[in-house]
Amino acid sequence: MKRSEINAIMRDALAFLDAQGFSVPPFVLWSPEDWKNRGAEYDEIRDTMLGWDITDFGSGDFFRTGLLLITLRNGSIDDARYKKTYAEKIMIVREEQVTPMHFHWSKMEDIINRGGGNLMVRLYNADDDEKLAGTPVSVSMDGRRQTLPAGATVRLRPGESITLTQRLYHSFWGEKGCGPVLTGEVSQCNDDRTDNRFLEPIGRFPALEEDAAPLFLLCTEYPRA
Q1: Cα dihedral value 91, 49, 104, 146, nearest 10
Q2: 58: left (phi over 0), alpha (psi -120 to 50) or beta
Q3: What is the pLDDT of residue 77?
Q4: C-alpha dihedral over 195, 201, 204, 206, to 10 degrees?
Q5: What is the pTM of this model?
Q6: What is the C-alpha to C-alpha distance for residues 72 and 87, in angstroms, rounded to an integer?
């Protein structure tokens, strides 16, 4: 992805968050120059990868296959310094912008429509070979247990949520004609380096083309103290 494209996506995201009345933590708005003066007391941000996460999943077309996430809080399974057992993200999912089919080995999560358009979520169980199973899917949506056919797509309207357990394949996108979706994620500790099993091989973090100075750093770019 071009840095200029990422900068534009960030600006657009901040305008959308403001329109939705959603405020971000201070570190989300720190400039690269600000980061030069942040000492080791901010290592939790660095080590648990808080902040901006923008990816096209290696597709080369962010608006068709991509996702913008901001990790707001997170712990660590492996680092005893960070004792949180939970994580939270805010995401912006555009109309027909697909996050590819994947599951998590360790993390269970709630995906929440916080406002805007409708979020569409397609579901499959994983079989023993980590491929798509043809078995019925059992999920909880806002406290209601449901059994759905393999490959079913559910619609989350603003305020609605779904619980995604480990090894439950899911893909999601914004419903066409309904606008972008302010999407929340509340989960167990999050590790995007090791806990994503995508059905098809893809790149989780984008390759960057530096055609402009960064507006804000991505969560993979923070300088060490």
Answers
A1: -40
A2: left
A3: 86
A4: 160
A5: 0.96
A6: 8
